[in-house]
Specification:
- By secondary structure, the chain is mainly β.
- The protein has a single domain, classed as 6 Propeller (Neuraminidase).
- The longest helix has 8 residues.
- The protein starts with a helix and ends with a strand.
């Protein structure tokens, strides 16, 4: 989600007043859920009118069409203890099997303690493990998960607390895709990073990648035979695309070409959106956005770099941390292509930025038009809440294509009291 906190805290307070995009899209935010604790995303099985909301603390709520909410899954006892002030670990992803209606299977990604690893170095130095696990719905209650069933598909030791990625989602091909951050800290360098190339460019590491796996396997997962690096001894078979820093929220377009779209959080200068292609190299840490990058001098742009074959983002904007001129935020948050009832918005990609400021909340909401190789971008003008400025944690999309915003006024996953949390989910409406 975010980068070097100290840098953002020092610089962002001075950069929050720069002008946004010249044009704006008028929208309203309709509150549909409250009392939550750091909601990160919302999704639903195909054709299901309910909305499932994941909370970073380790819970999933299910919201009925009439707005009533109940607890669907609680794995808080499995989650690594979270830092109340700020943390990027926790329950990070949720995806329903394409055949959920008949098999009841769904998948969650989350962070667990590192303790118990047989690797002494991991026990001493690594932060946590990130897990992808298969769960299933209760046979007696469609609004409850079966607490007695869990099948772990993937476990990865994670060196730092940040840059986890771990969005998961099924593509139109029925395969499960998973985003992986570069391992944390900053500049794709340091503990747990390839010192020569960084993890993003290291095809022997799962960090800094989009993975693609087949979950229809009796044990663990299978590797699809048409993955781009199958048979390459110098690359992991699971890799679908590479060269990412922290792909914080991806999604498949429900219509059009059903593209996989990821927002990749930049270092200090640029934020980007990528359309993911099979075998594509998206540049990190050779490039940050469309610009050459030097991990030893992250605020400077080298005049040239070896970027042959690398794919540039379809959209980028200035990061307020070190590139304040016309900046739009400090940490991009990926969203969804709108495919709902308002046909005027059809094909518009809704996304945001966590904030233009770490010290004072200043969340941003944007809309992008998908036109060719480079997309256009405009700010959302929230007509019914002109002073709205909550931190943007994530987005959601229901089975009918409507898009939602996950919002908080707190920087960290502070546990709620008897009444729950303070965070909200809004539906984006005309």
């Amino acid at each position: 989600m975010l980068k070097k906190l100290a840098l953002a805290a020092v610089t962002a307070a001075m950069t929050a007043t720069f002008a946004g995009p010249a044009s704006a899209l008028d929208v309203k935010l309709e509150e549909v859920a409250s009392g939550l604790q750091h909601p990160l995303m919302a999704t639903a099985p195909a054709g299901d009118p309910r909305l499932f909301i994941i909370e970073q603390i380790g819970t999933i709520k299910v919201m009925q069409p009439d707005g009533k909410m109940s607890n669907f899954l609680n794995i808080r006892e499995n989650i690594v203890p979270l830092v109340p002030e700020f943390d990027e670990r926790g329950l990070l992803g949720l995806a329903f099997h394409p055949n959920y209606k008949s098999n009841g299977l769904f998948y969650v990604s989350y962070s667990i303690p590192i303790h118990g690893s047989p690797n002494l170095a991991n026990l001493l130095f690594f932060s946590h493990k990130n897990v992808i696990a298969e769960r299933r719905v209760s046979k007696s209650d469609p609004n409850k998960a079966d607490p007695g069933y869990s099948r772990v598909l993937s476990t990865i030791d994670w060196p730092q607390f940040n840059h986890n990625g771990h969005w998961i989602g099924f593509g139109p091909d029925g395969m499960l895709y998973a985003s992986m951050g570069d391992g944390g800290y900053a500049n794709d360098y340091g503990l747990g990073h390839n010192p020569v190339s960084g993890n993003g460019q290291d095809l022997g590491s799962k960090n800094g990648k989009i993975l693609r796996i087949d979950v229809n396997s009796e044990e663990g997962y299978a590797v699809p035979k048409d993955n781009p690096f199958v048979g390459n001894e110098d690359a992991l078979d699971e890799i679908w695309a590479y060269g990412f820093r922290n792909p914080w929220r991806c999604s498949f377009d429900m219509g059009g070409d059903q593209n996989l779209i990821c927002a990749d959080v930049g270092q200090n200068n640029y934020e980007e959106i990528d359309v993911i292609k099979k075998g594509g190299n998206y540049g990190w840490r050779v490039k940050e956005g469309t610009h050459c990058f030097d991990y030893q001098k992250p605020n400077e742009e080298p005049a040239s770099c070896n970027d042959k074959g690398m794919i540039d983002p379809v959209l980028e904007y200035n990061n307020c941390s070190a590139n304040p001129d016309g900046c739009k935020g400090i940490s991009i948050t990926g969203g969804y292509v709108y495919r709902g009832a308002n046909k005027a918005w059809d094909g518009t990609y809704f996304f945001g930025d966590w904030s233009k400021n770490f010290v004072l909340k200043d969340g941003q909401l944007f809309a992008a038009k998908m036109t060719g190789m480079k997309w256009s971008m405009e700010k959302m003008n929230i007509t019914n809440m002109p002073k709205w400025n909550s931190y943007v944690m994530g987005f959601g999309q229901d089975s009918s294509g409507e898009v939602y915003v996950m919002a908080t006024d707190l920087t960290g996953p502070v546990p709620g009291g008897p009444l729950g949390g303070l965070d909200k989910v809004y539906k984006i409406v005309p």
